Amino acid sequence: MWNGDGTVEINGFRVYYTEVECVRRIxxxxxxxxxxxxxxxxxxxxxxxxxxxxxxDIACSAPQELTEEELxxxxxxxxxxxxxxxxxxxxxxxxxxxxxxxxxxETRGEHMRELDRMIVEQRQVLxxxxxxxxxxxxxxxxDSARIGFEDVV
Length: 153
Fold this sequence. Notes:
By secondary structure, the protein is mainly alpha-helical. It has five helices and two strands, in the order E-E-H-H-H-H-H.
């Protein structure tokens, strides 16, 4: 139902036209989301819906785009929404998966840096061995060379 202020009412929430599809999809896939919502004031409900949409945007982010602080803030915001009656187990699961991916990425990144450091060290060892081999080859050639008459007499 269209309202005069450019919003549409969906499941008791007034949302802007640009958010209609997202909000409809939330309620189609997770109809329990706002069944137990306690606030009745329309402005408060709208603020909570905007917060929920912001959290979903965060959950859609790539792990490397988020800081640990942003993830902690997102988890706290989720707890706030659950505290006022939202049923968000589905979003909690996604945020937890995002945290796990971020931790794996950080661990993997540390491991990759360690492997790179080890490769650099091994290249230096290999280079030193190649220099030593070249010196040995030069000495072997020098030692095996035939000397001239003048060098003997």
